[in-house]
Amino acid sequence: MKTSDYPLSAVPASRRKGLLSTTMVLLGFTFFTATMWAGGSLGTAFTFAELLWVITIGNLLLGGYAAALAYIACRSGLNSVLMGRFCFGELGSKLSDLLLGFTQIGWYAWGTATIAVILVQTTNLPGWMEIPLMVVFGMAFCITAMIGYRGLDWLSRFAVPAMLLFILISLYTGMHDIGGLTGLLGQTSTGSMSFAAAVTVIIGTFVSGGTQATNWSRFARSPKIAVIATLAAFCVGNGLMVLTGALGALIYQQADIVDVMLAQGFVVLAVLMLFLNIWTTQDNTIYNFAVAGCNLLRTPRRRLVTVVGAAIGTLLAVGGMYDLLIPYLVLLGTFIPPIGGVIMADFWLRHKGRYPSLESADLPAFHWVGLLAYALGSLAAYLSPLLPPLVGVLVAVLSYALLLRFGTATLPAKA
Which of 174, 283, 313, 388 fits 108 for a cystine, CB–CB 3.0-4.6 Å? Predict the structure, then answer.
């Protein structure tokens, strides 16, 4: 724990990482149980061929969005909350800090409760053990996040290959149980979901994570590495999670890989998968919260913020509030993608692809062009019946471009 992971400054060239390290950390983040559940909602709504098209298009759009931000993060060495200072202003950036931080602490509470509840059900432990397990896991999962990027890297190098192996074993068994590819292609669809709605589900499930994946892509040694690693995580990794959930629902009427493996008789592998799947997402999630919290409070004490965030998430889990948080977290997912849209527009249109030094930059308290563009993008996403995350990003970018071109004369430059 000798380094702070630069919560308030750019990552220097001497601390940059290679393709394997960056990819493993990002894959560990995208191997997420909730993504499988989203895939489960698609499993019976389409034929297998249609399902592959939905998953491919949805994850290409998600991966493209995350990769665009990854390129900027690597070029600048900054993450999304630090880039928020340029596009929203010193005080205005606290809006994005709160939005991004709140979603992550909510998901941390959900993950902490989930592993305790599933473990009790799987191992037939007494029900009263749920709360003690929430406390233990809630504080234990933050240890690798406290260490920082190195801790996430160490865990992911072990966990990601192990989870891939478990998933392949489960998928092979599932294909055998359904009668191979012939049996899978013979499955009929219910047609209960439109193509656009399915793509929205895929994008919306992890677009918040894509916005904050800059916390690790900024450590990449080159923009090429950052883009490749991000595409691998958000196209291939996230796509595999969606496909696994869809096939689980189709074959066993269970979307979660742990439930599927239990149905297949792999009890030990199911428990290991549960731990690795939740842990590799939980430590990334609380790391995201800590980064946003450091920028919000302007403190370099990332480890302290990490522990405080883990404690808050654990209390939310113990208090049973994690179930109440899910609808709000999904709703906030609508309002997060426009942040990425404003960041991209600000970087390329206003700063011409190169930020000034954050330490010496003369930043306004509120950058009204960015704030208004974000508001318009969020409103468009909220009202859009089709692909709200994508609409939010596009409207934010277009609004920023128009406001920058025609509105700067009437908007205050500083406040």
Answer: 313
Domain boundaries, the chain: 16-324
> Buried b / exposed e across 405-414, counting CB within 10 Å, b at 16+?
eeeeeeeeee
Q: Measure the CA dihedral 117/119/121/122, to 10°.
A: 160
Is the distance from CB of 66 to CB of 230 less than 8 angstroms? yes
8 Å CB contact between 45 and 255:
no
Taking only the tens place, the pLDDT of each residue in 319-340 is 987 666 666 666 777 889 999 9
Burial status of residue 363 (CB atoms within 10 A of its CB: 0-12, 13-18, 19 or more): middle
Any residues with CB less than 8 A from the CB of 187 and at least 6 apart, and which?
A: 47, 48, 178, 250
- Where do we find the tokens 């609380």? 286
CA dist., res. 278 & res. 258, Å (int): 11
What's the CATH number for 16-324?
1.10.4160.10
Separation CA 336–CA 296 (nearest Å): 16
pLDDT tens per residue, range 161-212: 999 999 999 999 988 888 887 777 776 666 678 888 888 888 877 888 899 9
What value does the CA radius of gyration of the chain take, rounded to a whole number of Å? 21
